[in-house]
Design a protein that fits this description.
- There is one protein chain.
- By secondary structure, the chain is mainly α.
- It contains four helices and no strands.
- It has a domain of 63 residues.
- The protein is rod-shaped and about 140 Å long.
- 1% of the residues are buried.
- The C terminus is likely disordered.
């Protein structure tokens, strides 16, 4: 019987040891579960933040696309082209008036055209070139952005590297309306 009691005590100690080991393992598993739950909550929070940011970017992209469509429509409208033509003519007329006034003034002082302070023999060519760039590139840019809204800036630039120059549609053929 003493042997039986000793056997039961040994078995009891072994069971207590196994219980402590099991409790330790269970505590470690609970820590892992809690840690995994915190990590999951953190990732879900990041995903919600990313989704919110993505939605904001999409809304901004849609707004910009609408702006591009609006600018494209405005740039190709007869009303806009008429307004732009009136501005060109007004600048030309003001330039004529100022040029005549200054020309008479400088002439009365005995100055030759090339001696006047603002004389620029290349001005007409420069203006024609700028006019061609503005009228040729700006609408083309808007059209290309509208046709390819997901292109990167570098891809968009590469589209213009192969663009043919725009012909001069001005009535006088000198780059002026």
């Amino acid at each position: 019987m003493l042997q039986r009691v000793q056997s039961l005590r040994d078995e009891n100690e072994w069971l207590v040891s196994e219980l402590k080991t099991s409790q330790t393992v269970a505590a470690e598993l609970r820590c892992w579960v809690v840690s995994a739950e915190w990590e999951l909550l953190e990732r879900e929070g990041k995903e919600r933040a990313w989704e919110k940011e993505r939605a904001e970017w999409m809304a901004e992209w849609e707004r910009l696309l609408e702006d591009v469509k609006h600018f494209k429509e405005a740039a190709s409208s007869l009303e806009f082209k008429g307004s732009l033509e009136r501005v060109y003519k007004a600048y030309r007329d003001v330039g004529y008036q100022v040029g005549l006034k200054d020309g008479y003034s400088f002439s009365s002082q005995g100055m030759k055209r090339k001696d006047t302070p603002h004389y620029n023999s290349k001005a007409k060519k420069q203006l024609a070139k700028l006019d061609e760039e503005i009228s040729g590139q700006t609408p083309a840019l808007l059209v290309k952005i509208d046709d390819n809204p997901l292109l990167s800036l570098d891809e968009l630039k590469s589209l213009f590297d192969s663009t043919d120059p725009v012909s001069d549609d001005s009535p006088s053929g000198d780059g002026y309306p």
